[in-house]
Amino acid sequence: MKLALIAPVVGVALFAAVHRRVLGIKREPSWPPGPDAVTADGALEATRAFNGGTRAAALEFAWSTAATLDPYVEGVNFFPRILADVEAARESVHILMFGWREGEIGMRMAELLGRKLGEGVEVRVIVDAFGSKPYKQAREMFTRLAQAGAQIVVNDLMPPDRDGLFPHGRIDPRQDELGRADHRKLYVIDGATAWTGGAGIEDHFANGGFHDLMVRVTGAVVRQMQAAFLTSFRGHGGPLGDDLAPYFPAPGDPGEIPVALAQVIPGGFVAAAQAIAEQIEAARERLDVMNPYMTDGDMIERIRAAAERGVKVRVVVSQASNNAMATAALRHRYASLYEAGVDVWELPGTVVHAKVVVADDLVSFGTVNLDAWALYRNSEIMLLARSAELAAQLEQSLFAPDIARCRRGAPPATTRERLESRLADRLAYYL
43-255 is classed in which CATH architecture? Predict the structure, then answer.
């Protein structure tokens, strides 16, 4: 009888532990950057100081500068430019990617990197096991790349958690990656040029099935982006070597655009989430939000409050997204958003996947969805830039043309739709 009781108790305890580990939300004060935050000039030393004891360094980055911030909308526009930058690499190509699959664009990137390795260019890669399938469907592609000399590490959302270079990583007894996706997308080329945004190296970004944005970055802030990559690579057991200085070249033009790099690192470091919240609160005239998964009640209420204080607020989402539950949860909020004065626009014919907020002249872009997973649980990255020019560019190339082909979002109409959307909203913590 006692043995019969032990199993359910152990099962409940195990479920509670996993639930707390995977679904729990922890938020430490992570924003704004403090006086000891890592500057662009201090990025090299911060990387040297990182001992690799955790999967990623929760580095607090100081405000820095960018020389250029060039937004590219749609894969047909950004992939050729990214590939051209990789082709032009002379020293190193570093890629951090949630989703890199073995389709046409994925193989094209892998083949290009194979050629660059043959030219003596160093290639380091971090991929997420859930998004990129390096041990399953994409194993052949990543194995060939590793055999060509690329150093690859993997974030393992599900056990077993392996640290070290793919495909011969060692089992990490801590299993500290359980339930934590690395959702970031980042390229750093020769330590001088970087890209970030929402797109994976996948065909649905290349062919327009997913509507996204990538931004090309130069200037001093690239040094901080390099530190974010290298500390993450080391945290997954990848070797860095002794001479890190070549990865942090002095920028030819450090730039004058004020910009801050912010991340979410599991364990309570939620700088990006807190920065977006502050950005929305600071809006006084214009607030434009484009995001695929808006289920976090706190963020939705901040958007609603902006409209109530007289800000012109526009929200752009998918008419039919790839997450029906998240879409239903947001539609439950349509009526209250409209009541506050928010304009909600649904884009047809594609899945909105860009993550952009424009609050007056303050712009954020990167990988952060407005849901609990991205805001609090997964690894995420974004840039926050104070730039009237970038805000105007995004109005011209993204928001205005998208809204011109949108329809106004309609609240749930039938009893069934209302019940489904209400239930989805109640489950937003898990979506």
Answer: 2-Layer Sandwich (3.30)
